[in-house]
Amino acid sequence: MNIAVKNLKKSFDGQLLFENLSFELKDGDVLGILGKSGKGKTTLINILLGLEKSDEGEVTYSEEPCFSVVFQENLLFEEKTVYENVKFVCDSKEMILKLLNEIGLGDYLNSKVSILSGGMKRKLSLVRAAAKEGNIFITDEAIREVDSVNKNKMVEFLMEHRGNNPLIYITHDEEDLKLIGANKIIRLKD
Ligand SMILES: Nc1ncnc2c1ncn2[C@@H]1O[C@H](COP(=O)(O)OP(=O)(O)OP(=O)(O)O)[C@@H](O)[C@H]1O
Fold first, then answer.
1. Structurally, how many domains does the chain consist of?
2. Among the residues of the chain, which ranges form H helices?
3. The complex's ipTM?
4. 109: domain CATH number?
5. pLDDT tens digit string along 108-134?
6. pTM for this one?
7. Which of 8, 12, 173 most suits a substitution to test ligand 1, by most atoms within 8 Å of the C-beta?
């Protein structure tokens, strides 16, 4: 999968977030998008996902994109169980159990999401993205709300399960970006 982003421009109510933003991604690439709060990180991925329109520019995919996404907000079904949440994107019970065990949620299969801690919900969001057979991985602050041991574990999990698909990794944290080892970085500033 190749992604070509050309001359993107986006502003809201006269506030310019970015312009002339261009980059290309291919299989294996890890793109870090770094920027403080409000600089347009989520807007940029919404444009890539087709949820938001850019003012100018274009995004081209070499094949039909299928996104595995960890959204900034977990967007989990709080009243459904851990298992059911992953089942929405994956038919293989074996795969679901394997992924949940790997990330350390194996004991919570039948627990409602609403009883999980913030970090556990983050892990579940990551499992759901990994369980989906996509060809692009996008994560927005994937490893927030967890301690450093769990951060390392989640990064390892993410890197294993994205396979060779391009990964777009959004964060406001330089240290998190180092952990992920991005080979391309975009810094959104004023
Ligand atoms: N639909 C919208 N209408 C108007 N303004 C918007 C809209 N979406 C985002 N904005 C504004 O655009 C700016 C960038 O928002 P965005 O959510 O992309 O930032 P971010 O870098 O992801 O921030 P954070 O790290 O806090 O999530 C903010 O000032 C926000 O208020």
1. 1
2. 41-49, 82-87, 93-103, 118-131, 148-161, 174-180
3. 0.94
4. 3.40.50.300
5. 999 999 999 999 999 999 999 999 989
6. 0.92
7. 12
